[in-house]
Amino acid sequence: MLKMAVLLSGSGRTLDNFHERINNGSLAGKIQVVVSNVAGVLGLSKAEQYGYPAFHAGKNDQINEILKDYDVDIVCLAGYLKLYTPPPELARAVINIHPSLIPSFCGDGFYGHHVHEAIKSRGCTVSGCTVHFANENYDEGPIILQKCVELAYEDDIDTIADKVFAIECEAFPEAINRIDERGIDFFWKRVGM
After folding, report:
1. What is the pTM of this model?
2. Which domain holds residue 157?
3. Pairing relationship of beta strands 74-77 and 94-98 according to DSSP bridges
4. What is the pLDDT of residues 96-125, one digit of tens each?
5. Digit-coded pLDDT (tens) for 148-163
6. Contact partners, residue 179, CB within 8 Å, separation at least 6
7. Same domain? 127 vs 158
8. One pLDDT digit (tens) per residue for the chain, 193 residues
9. How distant, in Å, are the alpha carbons of 17, 83, 93, 110, 119 from that of 113?
10. How far apart are CA 19 and CA 70, in angstroms?
């Protein structure tokens, strides 16, 4: 079972998903702490309601100072909208979910609706999500898991976002379970990074 820190910037929908799956036994993790880089967001209120230690910290060094007080195996970027630089001991233990099939529609500036708008404007008939390890560059770390969803010609941006988020709710916990089974190093070694 992985001991998790969850970093977020907004409503905490992914935190909801993690909490539900931990409680029903389908996620091999335990949330140790939740940190938001944005003060007063719904995600922090949810964390407190769930009984998790919850903090606001706007900068990397402040986040890392908080994480020092907790036993953490992995840092999950759950709708965290900044580039996070972990402490050295967690440098290869940060995972993110991206709302496209990397290497398409990713990198600096590609997040949330910006991704779905680009997918719609390109006329894609599939989209999906990618759970990957994070490094010092946006969306470049080793891929853990990808899931695909079919798009209809008529799908608008909100429909695409809803379809992708639905499979994100499956993919992120599944990726965490795979890391728990295989270990962090397996994924870094398989791509030679």
Report:
1. 0.93
2. 97-193
3. parallel
4. 999 999 888 877 777 778 888 999 999 999
5. 999 999 999 999 999 9
6. 2, 74, 95, 144, 187
7. yes
8. 999 999 999 999 999 999 999 999 999 999 999 999 999 999 999 999 999 999 999 999 999 999 999 999 999 999 898 889 999 999 999 999 999 998 888 777 777 788 889 999 999 999 999 999 998 877 789 999 999 999 999 999 999 999 999 999 999 999 999 999 999 999 999 987 6
9. 20, 18, 27, 8, 10
10. 18
| Both tokens assigned to 36 | 């938001």
**Per-residue 3-state assignment (H helix, E strand, C coil) for 113-163:** HHHHHHHHHHCCCEEEEEEEECCCCCCCCCEEEEEEEECCCCCCHHHHHHH
Contact between 155 and 111 (Cβ < 8 Å): no
> Which of these three, 56, 91, 126, is where a domain ends?
91
Q: Which of 75, 91, 107 is the last residue of a domain?
A: 91
Q: Which residues are catalytic?
A: 98
H helices of 10-94, where? 13-24, 42-50, 60-67
Return the H-helix or E-strand segment holding 169.
Answer: helix 157-182
Amino acid present at 148: C
Same domain membership, residue 116 and residue 191: yes
Q: What is the DSSP letter of 89?
A: G
Q: Do 9 and 24 reside in the same domain of the chain?
A: yes
What CATH number does residue 32 fall under? 3.40.50.170
